[in-house]
Amino acid sequence: MSITKEHCAKGKSSTTRVSQHFCQSLGGTCVNVGCIPKKLMHQAALLGQALIDSRKFGWEYSHQVKHNWETMTEAIQNHVGSLNWGYRQALREKAVAYVNSYAEFVEHHKIKATNGKGQETYYTAAKFVIATGERPRYLGIQGDKEYCITSDDLFSLPYCPGATLVVGASYVALECAGFLAGLGLAVTVMVRSVLLRGFDQEMAERVGASLQQLGVRFLRKFVPVEVQQLEKGSPGRLKVVAKSTEGAETVEGVYNTVLLAVGRDSSARNIGLEKIGVRVSEKTGRIPVNDVEQTSVPYVYAVGDILEGRPALTPVAVQAGKLLARRLFGGRLEKCDYVNVPTVVFTPLEYGCCGYSEEKAAQVYQKESLEVYHTLFWPVEWTVACRDNNTCYAKIICNKFDNDRVIGFHILGPNAGEITQGFAAAMKCGLTKQLLDDTIGIHPTCGEVFTTLEVTKSAGLDVAQKGC
């Protein structure tokens, strides 16, 4: 039996209203308030940039071009709805009983499920899989739940958010900041410490620089301490008071919308795990598991974002769930690989990576074992449009004492997601620097840059491109 946290408690905030809708929809965070609507809004922003570039390629248009937020969100939500319906149909075809209720353990091998009307039903099973995911975190400051929104709200927001303050520096924060700026909105990002914690920090700073080129303003080393409503509306006007993390300095700013993207909290609490002895981390609220996704209680397994120390990514959860089902019921032995996980930050200039960051590679291996090959590059699509020739960047991290095996792959450039996916498969096969050198590149593409890497960081040579 799979336990998912479907039925939500009622509340007054706009986030709660959206979350209630989400809880009635199949597909989880990714489909409803994550990857899918995010990628489509990212695409909307890219189309805006393409309109600008098109003039250099000979396209002429005289009438005013503007973006309609309502048209975009309606189309996106219609697509999300079609996915929800498809998942429901797939469950029926597989004869899976879907129960939309709030589940909690009451004793070993037994749960209570409470639906939206308060009706309770009890279920027993030999094995359980917990996949309750996470929900957006609030700051616990005055006015946050009353006046702020989260990414869960943004993707179905019925009005254009206007001038927006994004609080946070996670990939969710930067992706939202990126597509909002790409749609022509004034965007400020308030950063407590570093950008993209857990990612390669050189790449993170390059992502930040690319957003600044787009017009995103960064307010570094500040945290909000109060949000006040100055004017109601759709959107209204909000005043944000923020305090420096390095001193007593405070700043104030006025925005139409404040978007909180400061992380997500595990939904592993309040589902009765303590009644059956499933261990939950006191610090993170996540569930530790072994290499076969088994919790501290042998008949209870867990997959997805609620796992302690595992990547919080939908494809990882899907893969782990598939392999778990095969091990439990199909006689298979394969385990999920949580190291070589490809992922992409869908900022307007995408950042794709697989394997280790430079920081993590230096921890896992001796620093003298590593060789980093890198270069800036200029996509041919950018040349005629005369876009910046030293923004896109590629690097690989190799283990010199393991046949120069590629243990880290990083690219900042157009279509980084499509590029990273292919190289991730190669890394699963033991990709080495020599194999890259022996591969013929497809010209002219961005991906071919990895077949011609020559300059190492240790050599200290200039990798800047010339042109424009």
When the domains are counted, the total is 3
Count of helix runs: 14
Which CATH class of the largest domain is shown?
Alpha Beta
Alpha-carbon Rg, integer: 24 Å
Globally, the shape reads globular
Percentage of residues assigned to helices: 25-40%
Strand tally is 21
Notes on the structure:
This protein is of the alpha/beta class. The chain folds into three domains: 2-136 and 265-329, FAD/NAD(P)-binding domain (3-Layer(bba) Sandwich); 144-263, FAD/NAD(P)-binding domain (3-Layer(bba) Sandwich); 350-458, FAD/NAD-linked reductase, C-terminal dimerisation domain (Enolase-like, domain 1), CATH 3.30.390. Helix content is 31%, strand content 22%. A hairpin with a 5-residue loop joins strand 20 (392-399) and strand 21 (405-412). Helix 3 packs parallel to helix 7. The radius of gyration is 24 Å and the shape is globular.
What's the short version?
The chain has 468 residues and is of the alpha/beta class. It is 31% helix and 22% strand.
Itemize the secondary structure elements and their pairings:
Layout: E1 2-3, H1 14-23, H2 28-33, H3 35-54, H4 69-93, E2 102-107, E3 110-114, E4 120-124, E5 128-130, E6 134-136, H5 144-147, E7 149-150, H6 151-154, E8 164-167, H7 171-182, E9 187-191, H8 201-213, E10 217-220, E11 222-231, E12 237-244, E13 250-255, E14 257-260, E15 264-266, H9 273-276, E16 300-302, H10 314-329, E17 343-345, E18 351-355, H11 358-364, E19 370-377, H12 380-385, E20 392-399, E21 405-412, H13 416-428, H14 433-438
Parallel strand pairs: 1-5, 5-16, 7-14, 8-9, 8-14, 9-10
Antiparallel strand pairs: 2-3, 3-4, 6-15, 11-12, 12-13, 17-18, 18-21, 19-20, 20-21
Helix pairs in contact: 3-4, 3-7
